[in-house]
Design goal:
- The protein is of the alpha+beta class.
- The chain folds into 2 domains: 70 residues, no CATH class; 67 residues.
- The protein has 4 helices and 5 strands.
- The strands form 2 sheets. A 3-stranded antiparallel β-sheet has the order 2-1-3, with helices on one face. It has a two-stranded antiparallel sheet with strand order 4-5.
- A hairpin with a 2-residue loop joins strand 4 and strand 5.
- Helix 2 runs antiparallel to helix 3.
- The longest helix has 33 residues.
- It is elongated.
Length: 150
């Protein structure tokens, strides 16, 4: 039977090792040696049950291990989701900057005011958009209305 191992890394992240059947120990030893070389400290692995990680894969950097089970650290996951939102929001702000410059060139103060208000809405997203959820699936689905989802 194929085994899966969880490796808690010194940077707070969790790595999953799915070794090749029949070469489990050799594969695991190579992975551990690689992390030990990268971080300069010994790391250990624990065997864990084979479970579907797909629902939480989007927040892989927020994984934590509790009682040998991979789970998501929801505060870290919220930070990851907000970073994704900020990335898209920043692209939208750049687009609005171009639109604003065109409105200035055209002398259209009404369009300038509209764009200015929209830019402020975009800037306010990190302070006003609520990412409070109980599950990674719910968090993944949370996205500000009107902001394109990439």
């Amino acid at each position: 039977m194929v085994k899966r191992y969880l490796i808690s890394l010194p940077n707070g992240q969790v790595s999953v090792c799915n070794p090749i059947e029949g070469l489990e120990q050799e594969c695991l030893d190579k992975v551990l040696a690689s992390y030990e070389a990268e971080f300069g400290v010994a790391v250990t692995a624990i065997e864990c049950p084979i479970v579907d990680l797909a629902p939480i894969r989007v927040f892989r950097s927020a994984w934590k291990v509790e009682a040998g089970v991979v789970d998501v650290d929801m505060p870290k996951a919220r930070g990851i989701q907000m970073d994704k939102i900020r990335e898209v929001r920043n692209k939208e702000l750049a687009k609005k900057d171009i639109e604003f410059m065109r409105a200035i060139e055209d002398g259209d103060t009404d369009v300038q005011a509209t764009i200015k208000a929209k830019k402020q809405e975009l800037r306010d997203i990190p302070q006003t958009f609520d990412l409070t959820t109980d599950t990674p699936e719910e968090l993944k689905a949370k996205w500000p209305e009107g902001l394109p989802k990439e």
